[in-house]
Amino acid sequence: MTNGPGPVGPMGNGPNGERPQRPGLPLGTQPTEYTGRYVVLLDQQETERGMEALRSSVGIASVERVRGAEPGAAELLARPDVSVVFDELGVAVVDVQPDQRHALVTTAEAEPTIIATEPERVVYASVITESHHTLTGFFPTYRSDEDEVTRHTRAELATSLGPAWDEQNTTWGLQGIRANWSHLTGSGVKVAVLDTGVDTDHPDLTECVEATASFVSGASVEDGHGHGTHCVGTVAGPAKPGHAPRYGVAGEAGVLVGKVLSDQGVGSDGEILAGLAWAVSQGARVISMSLGAPVEPGELFPQTYENVARRALRRGTVIVAAAGNESRRPGFVAPVGRPANCPSILAVAALGKDLGTAFFSCGAINGEGGEINIAAPGVDIFSAAPGGTYQTMSGTSMAAPHAAGVVTLLAQAHPEASAADLGTRLRSGAHPLAQPAADVGSGLLQAP
Predict the structure, then answer these.
(1) What DSSP state is assigned to residue 4?
(2) How many whole angstroms separate alpha carbon 306 and alpha carbon 369?
(3) CA separation, residue 10 to residues 112, 123, 429 (Å)
């Protein structure tokens, strides 16, 4: 990304499609920030050789290795005297003194087992809109008569009903992607949600959450922000919630919840990478990341995230990420943020109820990797909230879990498919929209 030394946050009405702003900064004007540490991508076959080169030439701190689901990653990342290697991904997070940064660069250029070094970034969750509901309330609902279904194709129906959603029984988002007509449930498929955690006691979510882990030092996986619980609900909320319309795409999936963002919606590349390593080691077929950081026009995608995504794909894992909320359409379109701007990560744009591109949704401004792959509902999205309640949020953060849920359904339907094939099926099944591909990719997400 841009030069400089830095953490990562959600996108949506909260984290990735929604980074909460830093105090005093207008939405969409956050500067690039860094932690001072560096992320190092290593040859997975020779990680020790690469780390030894850094020890001898750069004088990095003592090295601790984290393998798979081992506990303690959050505490190690919080220690300035320790560099951490995630063996699952072949990535290290190292602390480098300012006077040693030149040595880091020259060592990385000379040592073939060091593939890339990048300053660790800081990112914030960006909130667009938000409202909370306690139990039942008025939820506009959907007209679902069989004559209409037979007269129209699935995509035509989704488009024709855009302006008149009836959400008493099912959210407009699920209707738009046709999840309410799918016979698939996500059963037998593991999907990871890396975010601000989850309300583990939420009555709608206790059955779907299979495992949890916190990579934020000193914090449990409990969600004090709301963004993570909302995203988990969108991915795998139940088919028949007790006090709300249906809002979850894949209600029988097994959810792995990794807290990689604080209750303020802030995290670091190291925390995200720790969550990715854990999710892959746990056998996640899909990873949903409603988080990211803005990039500049012309900025290249991050090599570390791209290589990690490739390694995950080879392991059978698809990574889905929110495109970002920095645009102010129609006057200004911002480039897809990182890590969604990586070629091997599926970038999801947000649509409103009219199926138009949301004013905040980022677009394909930059080159390779900076494209939008697909679009999904991301405005006024109803889902779970901490405290056993519900909330409505907007952002590309809300669009990404819709896409992750549909990839989960595809994985159930095609258990032998490769991760790359699942991504291809997702894109090829989309309904084309009138907007250019730069804004919506293949078009409107559709459930199988």
Answers:
(1) -
(2) 9
(3) 34, 8, 27
Tokens representing 54 are 């850094």
Order across the sheet with 266-268: list the strands. 62-66, 82-86, 91-95, 33-42, 114-124, 266-268
Q: Which residues are CB-neighbours of 271 under 8 A, at least 6 positions away?
A: 7, 8, 74, 77, 215, 216, 260, 261
Q: What is the DSSP letter of 169?
A: S
95, 195, 204, 269: which one is catalytic? Answer: 195
Say what the pTM is.
Answer: 0.88
Q: Cis peptide before 330, with omega less than 30 degrees from 0?
A: yes
Structure tokens at 391: 């909330």
User: Do 280 and 89 meet the contact criterion of CB atoms below 8 Å apart?
Assistant: yes
pLDDT for position 60: 87
**Catalytic one of 126, 223, 225, 227:** 227
Closest CA to 15 of 290, 215, 393: 290
Cα gap 9→269, rounded to integer Å:
9
Q: Is 195 a catalytic residue?
A: yes
Strand order in the sheet with 209-214: 209-214, 254-259, 190-195, 286-289, 318-322, 346-351, 374-377
Three-state DSSP class for 356? coil
Has 380 been annotated as catalytic? no
Residue 7's identity, in one-letter code, is P
Residue 117: closest CA among 4, 41, 3, 37 = 41
Residues in the chain where the model's pLDDT stays below 50: 1-9, 13-29, 129, 133-162
What are 15's two structure tokens? 């984290």
Element (H, E) at 369: none
Peptide bond into 339 cis (omega under 30): yes
What pLDDT does 31 receive?
60
- Name the catalytic one among 290, 397, 431, 439: 397
Catalytic residue flag (residue 204): no
* b/e sequence 363-376, b meaning 16+ C-beta within 10 Å: bbbbeebbbbbbbb
CA dist 194 and 11 (Å) reads: 11
Q: Which of 145, 246, 160 is nearest to 444 (CA)?
A: 160
Listing DSSP states for 91-160 in one string gives EEEEE--GGGHHHHHHHHHH-TTEEEEEEEEEEE-B---EEEE-S-----B----HHHHHHS-HHHHHHH
The gap between the terminal CA atoms of the chain, to the nearest Å, is 36
pLDDT (tens digit, 9 = 90+) per residue, 284-342? 999 999 999 999 999 999 999 999 999 999 999 999 999 999 999 999 999 999 999 99
Per-residue pLDDT tens digits for 332-349: 999 999 999 999 999 999
**Helical residues (DSSP H) of 163-226, grouped into ranges:** 172-176
